[in-house]
Amino acid sequence: MKKNWLYLFALICSVALFTACSDDELANWQKLPTESISAENLTLTTNSQTQANASVTLSMTDAQNGVLTLTNAIRGLDEVSVNVTATEQTDGSFSFQGATSVPMTKAVADLINSIDVTVSGTITQEGTATVDVTTAADGYLVKKWNLCDATYTDILNVIYGAAKINWEADYMTASGVNPATNIQAIGTLALHAIMQQVLRDVEFRADGSIVASYASEINLTQESIMSAIFGGGVDVSTIEWVSSPANLAYWYPSGDNINVVLDIPAIIAQATQDQGGDSSIGETVMSVLEMLQTATPAEIKSTLNGLLQSVGQGTVLAELDLNQIADEDITELMSYLNNGFPLKYDITTPVLGDDVTTVNDVFVYLDKDFMDILMPALKPVIASPDFETMVSEAVGSYWVLLKMVLGINSLAEINDVWDATSLFKVGIDLTDGSFKLPEAETSAE
What we know:
Low-confidence stretches: 16-21, 437-445
Distance between the termini: 109 Å
Number of helices: 11
Shape: elongated
Structural class: alpha+beta
Helix content: 25-40%
Strand content: 25-35%
Largest sheet: 10 strands, antiparallel
């Protein structure tokens, strides 16, 4: 019996010794963590804002090679795997680097061909990692785009202009007029006049940043807008244009959309600098935004309604009631602060006024689905007498003529037109060059 116990003890010692020897014989690359690394154990740097739920996983195949998987680290790409080469450091950690190209396979592929992803960093046996990710998009969108510098029309349809409205509705007035068609034409001319005096160009850079040239001082006048509506031009010769910093807004492809993300802290910091360093307003805005991130839809509505009442006191803004917007739509709107505003786009090559000249044109817009979220809150405002008074005072002596051209008796009728709407788009028109034709051949400007 004692001999059996001796054999058993010897066997246990042998197994323990073998296991200990096996652990000691593992190479350092085999000791690296195989589970995902995130949060406090991950230091991640990307071209744009880093997402809170990003993680990385490194799977080594041998001492010099592995696959780094990025999850939620690159906006628009849920998961990317990159083959990396690794080098052991004196402390047992490993540095790595690699690159891959991710083709675009969804509808947005006509704007973006691919996104090149380059990674580098270090990973320790204790499960911490530092990762630098650089992305570079390649495709039709990646360039500086000018706002269209003139308007060209096909009857009442503006096919080329700095900003456009496309509106189709099955609604006719008693006099046989379709207000949506007329609002589309008049509204486009007005928006064109406004945008021409506000924004000159927009650059979608390969690294995902957006840089724009905008007017240093915005000085819109009733005369310039109404002149553009009724056939006059827009004089931009005296406008001083300035370029925005590169860190205020970013873009990324997502499914059928181009998402635009606003870096609100950076925007507030820039605005504070422009105002001579007064940070009080910026701090208030940031505190409100931080609170809204974790608030319920009901709390969000209550807070924003209070702000509208305060800021818009004595104006139609105070008549906006966000309680009319569904809870799920409030949640979706708040998600845009983190994930970006989803912009649709149309690519066209319109033929302009001489029946020969064609332009490359990208119309970037918000559509009816987006506006349907806001309309429950906007409809009471549109129907209010205060709103009609505000608009009539803004256009002055043109008001009677404008209502006649639009074919409506009052602005409240727009709500009925919206209920019959089948298509709505509003956005800016971008072109990759200047295509002004001789003045005699253009319909405006």
